[in-house]
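Posting here for the record, re: pyridoxal-5'-phosphate.
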Amino acid sequence: MLDVHKIRKDFPMLEGHRMQGMPLIYLDNAATTFKPQSVIDAVTHYYTDISVNAHRGDYELSYQVDTEYESARETVARFLHADKREIVFTSGASEALNLVAYGFGRKLLKPGDVVLSSEAEHASSILPWMKTCEETGAELTYIPLDEEGRLTADNFERCMDHHVKIVALAQVTNVLGYEMPVKEICEIAHRYGAKVIVDGAQSVPHMPVDVLEMDCDFLAFSAHKLCGPTGIGVLYGKYEYLDWMDPFLLGGGSNARFDMCGNIMLKQPPYKFESGTPAIEAVLGMKAAIQYIDSIGMEEIHAYERELHRYVVERMMKMDNLVVYNPYSDSGIITFNVKDVFAQDGASFFNANGIAVRSGQHCAKLLMDKLGTSATIRASLYFYNTKEEADIFLDVCSKATLENCLDIFF
Ligand SMILES: Cc1ncc(COP(=O)(O)O)c(C=O)c1O
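Prediction output follows.
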């Protein structure tokens, strides 16, 4: 059983921070998460003890950095159940998803081909394919979502044919928090010869993810949503596809040889994608974050979040002043509005009460039409949020009326 009060002591941001004069209640974890001291220490360790470049020098310190850097790759590989040659370090999920569209999609797609995605996707998952389709003449089409806004395997299969070459979807969506049936989707897509690119930005930090078991072809995530540093993320790809595709950055570190005739010989994956000096401290911090998550247990984290989510949503559903758009979300994401109140004004009311939530379209602009609203408030939980925080949030929810929300501006 997860001991949330003990866990909170690991996070400096959870020790006595105040907002608007009140103890901070942070419910914007889908945007980014707080970092435990061990992650901060790992980043500091790089700058304090081993602050030299990776993959460059022939001296002892350089060797130490290389060893620690590559051991982070092994940690990520174990975490996802992949081979370490299949783990490419990127600046985050956005760069990873762009890399697949640019390096794989542009090489693969031709006029008449289809890329399948959905209206619930984050901009970082869909925009790279919009651009790639425009450039290759392929067509981007959207799988219809069901009434609740979910992607079902049946709807997906109805859209499949042999023209579909790429399926680009989030394992867990960032506004409604629904989990797609990823294993089934991969199985169906592969039957038609399509490749599946999974945006794992909202799944990898919250639930066990096994790329071998789901059999996806690529998967992307960011460390900062997983208690890790900003500026670092991962692209997992099946080795044969990483080997076949192009990098979108060229430069030092990624080539084995080049000559004046323009012959460039790239290194093997993953190094052919890692030109330039990497964010070494962030890579070491990401390793510490995964070790920290592992020490708590991903199954426990997932179960705890689901339980806290249910506790909150059941109570919110009874409040006449709120509209909840995803009561049956599979994650800790709660998307709602205060009736008759613009989302940003609603979020300001929570801010005035010491609670950090997000408002707007959450980078999923296509979804707002489906929800029939221009913007929503999003509260997103993580394993360090407590039931006491949930109760304060619920109390503020119950007071969030048009009158009270407008009151804070006068
Ligand atoms: C579903 C999803 N995909 C991709 C991203 C992009 O992640 P990053 O900004 O870390 O690159 C996010 C970030 O919010 C997300 O929620």
